[in-house]
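Quick one: structure tokens for this chain, please?
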Amino acid sequence: MTDAAAPRPEARNPRGFADRRGRDLVAERRLVQRVSEVYERWGFEPLETGAFEYADALGKFLPDADRPNEGVFALQDDDDQWMALRYDLTAPLARFAAQGWETLPKPFRRYAFGPVWRNEKPGPGRFREFVQCDADTVGSDRPEADAEIIAMACEGLQAAGLAPGQAVVRVSNRKLFDGLFEAGGVTDPIQKLTALRAIDKFDRLGWEGVSALLGEGRLDESGDYTKGANLPLGVAATIEAFLASAGDAALSRAETLEAVARAGGLGAIGEGALNELAAIDRALNAMKVSQDAVRFDPTIVRGLEYYTGAVFEAELLLDTTDEKGRAVRFGSIGGGGRYDDLVARFTGERLPATGFSFGVSRLASALRAAGRGDEDSVRGPVVVIVFSEDDMQHYLDAVSELRNAGVAAELYLGRAGMKAQMKYADRRGAPAAVILGGDEIAAGQVTIKDLDAGRALAAGVTDNEAWKAERPGQRVVARAELVSTVRAIVDAARTAS
């Protein structure tokens, strides 16, 4: 078969892997930059680990011997060891801390961002590759370390574009349930896990649905039956009492703890968890973190087989809509908690750790859907129009002057005419187009089209002929005023957005 007759490959994305360009990429990069500045100001250092980890370092995501690609993307190294693309940014941190703990400052405070990969079934909004951003403190068991992570997460969300009151971080402690189960004589791990999964559905099912799942089970609207945890009635009653405290947003953090304590039945472990939450509250108050920004909510469970103490979840409070104006609910936009057992997998010794993570693409999408996206990030460069090869030096001079002045600019390098070049500038989202025709060059002038003004005026146009005659958004200035005129247009567009 000749090369000419060879079948052509189909141009297609692997499922679960998305191409992203322009607006989305710039918005996400700026989001990470702004959040990173917050993390560094709080004394966290950046850390970058490799994309691959040895498969046995991935903890609960460790592939079994028969299916080395279960949940992860894995391959064999030349020494027959299985490596896998990292599933998250926490497992690499645990390996890094265990590997070099003797040389690290203790506690070790780091933040990281980058892509992670999951070999799971893709679906709408569910990708096999996405970007995460984490901040963690390893080596401190103090509740103040949890409080600091929570407070920093609040500041990071504001840096990302959310004003106060547009998100809330809900906090609880996994040991509340550990104590409740122990005091109630519930020792079966499956029974406890089933109960925690039921409690995790409280915001969606309410107490009636959760109560059924804590008991015999529940038949949902589709007709599917979910087997329940069969908890003792006394334990279920205690859960009902302290979940009720989550429904009153008027309660302060301290008042919520008092309501949970009154429910009783938490045992010594649960009482210890309340003390830890009280210490977190004191530290948050000292850092001037408002009661609206961080609330205690005993329904927060998170990471059923992962977290060991305090857990927190950031929730978007704004109304959000999709591209067609339909309401969508983002709910959680980040979360974290205390995980004191992760490093021990390598060292055999418990090493306390706490952290917060958010999906960069998800947060950027949530901000955009809430009308809080970085509109400046969609702006294209100023476009310098090209008329004649003979005048190329004038065009190159103009675009260089703009760039040297800090204005994003490009020289049109296609071979289309004036009309197509203006359409190109509009498609690029350019704030302005620079026109240096023969007449302008001879007169020492330049014509600048304010494309934003033109777009705004075009929305109300009723007479095309008048529109053409008036040339809205177009001005002729002295050639020496090119940079100052364009900068004024760009700055006005940025201020308006």
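Confidence is low (pLDDT under 50) at residues 62-66, 466-471.
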